[in-house]
Amino acid sequence: MPLHVCVVGSGPAGFYVAKKLLKRFDFARVDILERLPAPFGLVRSGVAPDHPETKVVINQFSRTAEDERCRFFGNVCLGTDVSLEELRKIYHVVVLAYGAESDHRLGIPGEDLEGVFSARQFVWWYNGHPDGKDLPINLNNVETAVVLGQGNVALDVARILLRSPSELSSTDIAEHAVKALRTSRIRKVYVVGRRGPVQAACTAKELREILGLKGVEIVINEADLQTTDCDLEELQSSRIHKRVFDLFCKSATFTKCAGRDKQLQFVFFRAPVSLLAAEDGIHVRGVHLQKTRLEGNNPRKLVGTGEFEELDCGLVLKSIGYKSLPVPDLPFDHKKGVVPNYFGRVRSSDATNETERGLYVAGWLKRGPTGIIGTNEVCAQEVVTSIEEDVNRAVVSNLKEVPGSVGLESILSEKNKRYITFEGWERLNETEMEKGAVKGKPREKIVGIDEALAIGLAKEKE
């Protein structure tokens, strides 16, 4: 009897789970649900357009989707088109892997001013995500931007703002974004962190790339590169942090560099206190910062010094972390932004070790928004191991007969909901590549959902 599995989310976490399930169980039938017409999640809409090598993993995911035991249901939203309760009735196993589609907030005054966006929103905007295409990004009258945060995503958005549009125009960046960047007046970007260069959260690879941008001057306060005994201990215990710190030291310039018309300034030991409004009371005009320092040891505590300063800017991008969202009938830890789980098995509540039969989580929903694409493969293996153990112990409904995809099709049909198959995505993919080839790009993304559906559903309508 087939093991019917539904994976909600078609990003790296979802596809790695599907791949490993199909490899482990010859009798598995895996359906992948995705709320957008196009699959691949953050690989498509999160990876920077100037990092095409990172997107090669899509080839591996496509091979999984092409397996005859796997089906893709695009344009199907959990909670709107089908409920979690309905899925659990028609599948033996449901794996939630829909990631993190919201953001943490700073919780400071001025956060809702115009010109203030999360890094996730900005990434979706330049990557052609349907939810980001209408973001009111105006770069025509802005000369300075402030990025709050110093992780890899913060460096991504800063790099896109500073990189030459002519270099980006040959990538799969969304057309509306590259048009805006061509007329951008931004010449200076501050990347602000609450801690020092020793504690910066970025990787050496990402930092090296942004430090090497053509025509961009790098500025760092020389005093910020001074180290304490505690800093030296941290550097000795972390090769990653040492590489990052060494790059900061080697690349820092403290005087104006001739021939560089743009500037990237790293600001350390500063915490945002408020975002300042322009005279109209609507738009952002700057960031009010408090100086900070690290005290104590194991762990070191971040404290404010009581000294303040301002940075003038017309654009603020908050890169302080993604956050997952709950759905009805799903236990959720709102503080941690994850689903309580035991090796991927969804726990009924934090107060008990009991788990929900046949319900699992993977990826960011399981562990929080951390790690790289490859981290999801390790995470998926842990979840599939839990599923295997539960199948062997007859915990998963003792494999009683359920309708699986037939039941899902029935639910969607009753609601008159059209979905895109993987063949439909391949038509959409072919169209994007054809449009891109005309412009010398790998693809021109279809950012409108209606247009994507018209292409993806064309054959079904015939």
Automatic annotation (TrEMBL):
Keyword GTP-binding: no
Enzyme Commission number: 1.18.1.6
Coiled coil: none
Keyword annotations of the record: FAD, Flavoprotein, Mitochondrion, NADP, Oxidoreductase
Cell location: Mitochondrion
Cofactor (UniProt): FAD
Residues that coordinate or bind FAD: A13, E34, L42, L78, W364, G371, I372, I373
Positions that bind NADP(+): Q150, G151, N152, V153, R194, R195, E206, G371
GO CC entries: mitochondrion
PANTHER family according to UniProt: GLUTAMATE SYNTHASE 1 [NADH], CHLOROPLASTIC-LIKE
Protein name: NADPH:adrenodoxin oxidoreductase, mitochondrial
Source organism (scientific name): Selaginella moellendorffii (Spikemoss)
